[in-house]
Amino acid sequence: MNTVIWIAIFCATFVMMEFMAWFTHKYVMHGFLWSLHKDHHHKDHDSWWERNDAFFLFYAVISMSCIMLHDPNSFWFGRPIGFGILAYGIAYFIVHDIFIHQRFKLLRNANHWYAKGVRRAHKMHHKHLGKNKGECFGMLWVPFKYFKR
Predict the structure, then answer these.
(1) Which residue, among 98, 97, 140, has the nearest Cα to 121 in the 3D structure?
(2) Is 66 exposed, middle or buried (0-12, 13-18, 19+ CB in 10 A)?
(3) pTM above 0.90, yes or no
(4) Which of 90, 145, 106 minimizes the C-alpha distance to 123?
(5) CB-based contact 137:125 (threshold 8 Å)
(6) How confident is the model at residue 62 (pLDDT cuts 50, 70, 90)?
């Protein structure tokens, strides 16, 4: 297998996951599965875990399936796709759950203009506690209006 093609598929998958995260958030989480996502906007329990945490299982199953079903002859691209989804999931967890929501007390003092812009954009999304009118931005793409130097 050509390493360059493997890397290209991995990178393309990572970038495509930004769209998938936005699409899933807008049309699934703020759509027909709002019942799972709403505790992320308005916590109604004392647990550290949120019902919203169940969403990571969907992409984890897809990622693991692609990696495990890899076959050098027929599904050779399974690993780069699976690892691309996994890499995006790890990046999302670090940015969203650790950096923005501080579920673990790490990265608290990041004061770079980009970090502040990401936090500001996410706050705008969370200002709406209901199902509708929540702006949805990806973790890689945030409108310039949120960045101030």
Answers:
(1) 140
(2) buried
(3) no
(4) 145
(5) yes
(6) very high
